[in-house]
Design a protein that fits this description.
The complex is a heterodimer. By secondary structure, chain A is α+β, with helices and mostly antiparallel strands. Helices cover about 45% and strands about 15% of the residues of chain A. Chain A has 14 helices and eleven strands. Chain A is elongated and about 90 Å long. Chain B has two domains: about 220 residues, no CATH class; about 180 residues, Lipocalin (Beta Barrel), CATH 2.40.128. Chain B is elongated. The chains are: A alpha+beta, B alpha+beta.
């Protein structure tokens, strides 16, 4: 610690005696913030060492950058995030540790008059921690990885069949430029925070931006409530140091004294440490940018979506013109649990069916990187209303091997022979999961939709 | 504008008692310096000051006509809102798609600036004597501050009492994402969460309140500018139509914050000690003080607590401008399958390709009946209360649908207001679900129905209803095309993930 000194006369001025409450508060905050910053949860290292650096994915970096201690789990066995107030369980632990630790520290360190230097170190640490988190989320959005454009099946899902968090995501997602802009704001704030003199501006921006994100997390059960709140706490901590100054300037209209805690980089160790910190951040920026860009420019634009291309020329929305099961033709029926109503072929190898059969919703956030397409569940997480199947194409025998993508319905498998008599017709024949033979005639529908027609012109829809 | 700041001492001839105690305090630390404004500062002020002044003065006849025709015994929140939601001067009206929705919609903000430049130069030419404009600058700031503050509070109130964005109707819950316009989706995703809507309301109200106190005004102005700038971008991203009013507020917010920003920059970034010296006008005479206090607290009282209580009253007592207020038939709310549909005595089988045969029926909590067919409709493009408008020109149906919103007049005359609300239910929705308002005669069990879509409002139906057993409804009568129909409905006990929520134990739908 002693390697950090402040410049010139500042050194003297900075060493004012702190009032007792200030010393106590500092001791508490020091331990509390460190509890969240220093990776003391072993799971962090498990993640760190399980990374395959030859196949580095943006998600792996993100999962490190959004580290927070999870002694009380933040995710259940199924992968569903702990929601609501319960997601703050670790905070109680942090507060407890900080109270006890702060008390012991206070007893051992009674003669101490101030913590100016230690405060500066803590301030530095919080700045870098916050900046790294912001950079990761910034690139997550800048390259539209966090909130990809809704899939065709998603667009054909009834509004009530979305969880609120999914409505929030899919609504934001229909404007990829806006998503990118939000990412840009986070990166911009991170840069302000990395530059010592603009920390307060960046922190102010983050309080507004992430304050809104945290509120949305709380009200829409998005699943990152505690982490987004933590980042707000970090930025409030950073912002706080200039509050008395701004209060003096703007409200009391008195002479506002500028900051004097300017580190003296006379010490070589300090210079090296600083270089190292900047290097780490620089490397992280390159890695975030590179991996997020790779993910954006490959496959279908986001690692959350499958990669394998779908049946050539088949993508689109189909109505089910006829549905024959064991030689019985079933009429159109909205409430029937067997008769399909419509089918969607995605650009990638996912097929979704609307049929009145209950869906056990995948309640996860589906933000993990998955190797296999069938495990890439963002397109169905948080939705009911449609059944999603991953398929492999056997082009020689004109067969599709389908498997239900939903983790609760994985057992459902079926093989269907496909026939494309013309451009807009598809005929699927085969055996369904309950061993009935089915023959389904699909007709592709091309028509204008409200979402794309917009409200600018008169439209008959 | 970078040099435009007035943080210097008041003019030397200003008597000492004009200065607030703070200034006496600061004067000890920094000797008074009487500084004249530079030529550039003066010229810029003459342009920008005129511009901001013109932006903040209502300049069309209707504003005053409305103001002077107010009936005090019939006040509603609409009357408060139409005062604070006035438009900056509209010099030209470009009646094209781009002019109403797109980038050309900014034309009046630009034109007015050009006009201000001309005025500024003329002023410069004639006014060779003035050395400082501290006083004028102060008063322009006051006008801008109050105009922006009441505007922010007004817009915040329609979210604090969630009316601008409302919870999805049952009809919406059963409509696919793709059948809604972007603006509809954007507003609805806010309305999905009551408390998030309230939260956003306060994100506008708080900057508004900060603007009312001159010492926190620059903070309020900066916050208002940031919030409104985000609204500008979101409006472009989701084609929501109020980008220009939000941009207008952004300009006002930047103007208010402008003067303090260089000082804050100097203090925080350049790390120099700073003493901020604001100009405060002198009120030496008693009547001046009295007038000031009356105007200040009178306007604050009207546009903050009084407006809030009217918004609250409207919200809790059936005057939500987006939603109907006539209760529907008790106990019917929900989603129904159509088990039988007869046209002129002939049953028609369920068929998603039929434009006549109803596929399902929804009863809302209020008196709306909607059903799905394969028909198309000329879309009702009124999505919430928004300036989809060509003011005063009712003949331009292509772009003008704002004048069709008159729920407030109906409310004031104690008439049924449901057909006058913004048609939130049907606006920006594909035509395959038809929304009908109904008037129920519960004694004779007859529904008189009218299509809510303004472009199809001539469609009427008269249906007799029977409730043979719980969960079943029979409708018999004449549809909008004059066919005799008989429809049997069976309620589907539907649960929605959106309603149950992610935290619910129920995860099977």
């Amino acid at each position: 610690m002693s390697i950090l000194k402040f410049k010139g006369e500042t050194a003297k001025e900075a060493v004012n005696i702190w009032k007792l409450w200030k010393r106590n508060l500092f001791r508490f905050l020091f331990i509390f913030l460190l509890f969240f910053i220093v990776p003391i949860d072993w799971k962090f290292y498990r993640q760190l060492f399980s990374i395959d650096w030859t196949n580095l994915q943006f998600y792996h970096l993100l999962s490190l950058a959004r580290y927070q201690p999870a002694f009380f789990p933040l995710i259940d066995e199924e992968g569903v995030p702990v929601l609501g107030i319960a997601s703050y369980a670790n905070w109680l632990l942090g507060i407890g540790v900080a109270l006890i630790g702060g008390t012991i520290w206070a007893m051992l360190d009674r003669k101490r008059e101030e913590y100016t230097v230690l405060y500066y170190w803590l301030w530095l640490l919080v700045r870098y921690r916050l900046a790294i988190a912001l950079l990761s989320y910034g690139f997550y959005k800048l390259f539209v990885q966090q909130i990809p454009y809704p899939s065709l099946s998603n667009l054909f899902t009834n509004y009530g069949d979305f969880y609120a968090w999914k409505i929030y995501f899919q609504t934001t997602g229909i404007s990829p430029i806006y998503v990118s802009f939000l990412g840009f704001v986070e990166i911009f704030a991170a840069l302000l925070i990395l530059n010592r003199k603009t920390v307060t501006w960046g922190a102010g921006l983050v309080i507004g931006f992430l304050g809104n994100v945290a509120a949305a997390n709380g009200f829409y059960d998005i699943g990152e409530l505690s982490f987004s709140t933590l980042l707000v706490i970090f930025s409030v901590f950073l912002f706080a140091q200039d509050v008395p100054r701004l209060y003096n300037l703007l409200i009391k209209e008195k002479l506002a004294k500028a900051n004097t805690r300017v580190p003296d980089y006379g010490d070589k160790t300090l210079v090296r440490l600083r270089m190292a910190a900047k290097l780490v951040v620089g490397v992280l920026v390159v890695l975030f940018a590179y991996t997020a860009y790779s993910s954006w420019s490959s496959g279908f634009g986001s690692y959350k979506l499958p990669q394998q291309a779908g049946l050539p020329g088949a993508a689109g929305f189909y109505k089910v013109n006829s549905f024959i099961i064991n030689r019985d033709t079933l009429p159109y029926a909205a409430q029937d649990s067997t008769r399909w109503q419509d089918v969607i072929f995605e650009k990638w190898s996912t097929l979704s069916i609307k049929v009145n059969k209950p869906v056990q919703i995948d309640r996860t956030s589906a933000d993990e990187w998955q190797e296999k397409d069938i495990d890439r569940n963002y397109e169905l997480a948080g939705f009911s209303g449609r059944h999603y199947y991953h398929y492999d194409i056997d082009a020689v025998n004109h067969k599709l091997h389908l498997q239900n993508k939903n983790r609760h319905h994985r057992k459902e498998k079926l093989s269907l022979t496909y026939l494309q008599p013309n451009d807009s017709t598809l005929v699927l024949t085969g055996v369904n999961a309950s061993n009935d033979s089915i023959k389904v005639a699909l007709q592709r529908i091309n028509k204008p939709y409200m979402l794309f027609e917009g409200r600018r012109k008169a439209a008959r829809l | 504008m970078a040099n435009l700041n007035i943080d210097k001492e008041p003019k030397p001839n200003v008597p000492v008692h004009d200065v607030t105690p703070h200034h006496e305090n600061s004067r000890e630390m920094q000797p008074a310096l009487a500084q004249n404004w530079t030529f550039a500062q003066k010229t810029i002020f003459r342009i920008v000051g005129v511009y901001l002044f013109l932006l903040c003065i209502p300049s069309y006849y209707n504003f005053y006509a409305h103001l002077f025709n107010l009936k005090l015994d019939k006040l509603t929140y609409h009357d408060f809102q139409s005062v604070v939601a006035f438009w900056p001067p509209q010099l030209v009206l470009i009646e094209s798609e781009e002019g109403v929705f797109g980038i050309l919609n900014y034309v009046n903000l630009v034109l007015l600036f050009l006009v201000s430049i001309v005025i500024g130069f003329v002023w410069t030419f004639f006014d060779k004597k003035s050395k400082v404009y501290d006083k004028l600058y102060y008063w322009v700031s006051v006008i801008v501050r109050y105009r922006l503050a009441f505007g922010m509070v007004g817009w915040g109130l329609k979210k604090a009492f969630p009316m601008q964005m409302v919870y999805p109707t049952v009809g919406m819950l059963n409509t696919p994402f793709i059948d809604m316009a972007e603006k509809k989706l954007y507003w609805s995703h806010v309305g999905v969460s009551f408390w998030y809507t309230v939260f956003l309301g306060f994100a506008e109200i708080i900057p508004g309140l900060l603007l009312l106190y001159r010492k926190t005004a620059s903070l309020g102005g900066a916050l208002a500018a940031v919030v409104c700038f985000n609204i500008v971008l979101a409006n472009h991203a989701f084609d929501a139509g109020v980008a220009v009013p939000a941009a207008y507020f952004t300009i006002l917010g930047v103007f208010v914050a402008w003067n303090d920003l260089p000082r804050i920059w100097k203090l925080l970034v350049k790390e120099e000690d700073v003493l901020l010296q604001r100009y405060y006008p002198a009120f030496s005479k008693g009547w001046q003080k009295g007038l000031r206090l009356t105007l200040k607290w009178g306007s604050i009282f009207i546009f903050v607590p009084l407006a809030a209580s009217f918004w609250g009253y409207g919200f809790f007592y059936g005057n939500n401008y987006n939603l109907p207020s006539t209760p529907g038939i008790a106990g019917l709310k929900g989603y129904y399958e159509v088990t039988l549909f007869e046209k002129n005595g002939e049953p028609i089988a369920y068929n998603p390709d039929d434009s006549l045969r109803w596929q399902d029926v929804i009863f809302e909590e209020w008196s709306t009946l909607s059903f799905k067919t394969k028909r198309t409709a000329l879309v009702d493009r009124m999505i919430g209360y928004s300036p989809l408008r060509v003011k005063g020109d009712k003949t331009n149906k292509e772009l003008n649908q704002v004048d069709t919103q008159d729920s407030d007049e109906l409310f004031k005359s104690s008439r049924n207001r449901d057909l006058g609300v913004t048609r939130w239910e049907v606006g920006g929705m594909a035509g395959n679900r038809s929304y009908f308002f109904y008037e129920a005669d519960t004694v004779r069990k007859v529904l008189k129905l009218q299509n809510k879509n303004k472009n199809h409002q001539s469609e009427r139906m008269i249906l007799r209803y029977e409730l043979p057993e719980p969960g079943k409804v029979a409708l018999i009568g004449t549809n909008q095309y004059g066919d005799a129909i008989r429809v049997l409905l069976k309620k589907v006990e539907k649960r929605y993930p959106l309603v149950e929520g992610r935290q619910s134990e129920i995860a099977q739908f």
